[in-house]
């Protein structure tokens, strides 16, 4: 499985904007994937961002984070969009209404072109898309509670929580879980390793340190959820399965394939070593609370 890497002439044209968007600039477009033209969500990413910890410009690692998260999610058996990858777009190919957001995110100026992460539009709503956020606060809170309690009953949820713990994903909010038929579909891995100001072999930094937002929501609306032995055991089993996945030759080849386009061999090795170090059984059992 390889990450698609496409030139700007694979861009066919813009589509109507997404019904709901988050903090990142994102738009919908048709992209020629070679064998087919698909409707995709496209996220342009500046080369440089402002570090939220010290307010200094730093390289933006989000495009690599998206690729790492997508490959590992797919290899680990999660539902993810069928096609995803990287496309280089000129600023003229990106909707003008996103230019201000891009300039703000990119240290105050626009670039001539952008590396963009794209993923196929699978036509599934996210799990909270039908919550009317204009309702009174207590009604919105009740709606969130219903969604989170449903997630607490899904067996795949423990695997998602463990996956996000493994990758230190600080942004698994309910908007980036899609309501797919079999199980929640995972999208948006841009904030693995805490934040895209990370360096090879070390995590990024944000004020507050970052947390597993999905786990926090599950415990908030289902007090003690994470401490229940069946849930601890399920997360431990998930970690063990990830360790098997990442050790396979195919997965190592996938990771090395695109990491080699952004980093030298030593840096790429440091990223893979960091991933593997968090899959040590003693480490993750201690994190879960199965070991003192």
Structure description:
This protein is of the alpha+beta class and 292 residues long. 37% of the residues lie in helices and 16% in strands. The chain has nine helices and ten strands. The strands form three sheets. A six-stranded mixed sheet has the order 1-7-8-4-3-2, with helices on one face. The chain has a two-stranded antiparallel ribbon with strand order 5-6. Strands 9-10 form a two-stranded antiparallel ribbon. The longest helix has 18 residues, at 229-246. The chain is globular, with a radius of gyration of 19 Å. The relative contact order is 0.15.
What is the strand and helix layout of this fold?
Elements (H helix, E strand, L loop, with lengths): L3 E3 L4 E4 L12 E6 L4 E9 L2 E3 L6 E3 L2 H14 L8 E7 L8 H7 L7 E8 L16 H16 L3 H12 L9 E2 L6 E2 L26 H9 L7 H18 L2 H11 L5 H13 L3 H8 L4
Parallel strand pairs: 1-7
Antiparallel strand pairs: 2-3, 3-4, 4-8, 5-6, 7-8, 9-10
Helix pairs in contact: 1-7, 4-6, 6-9
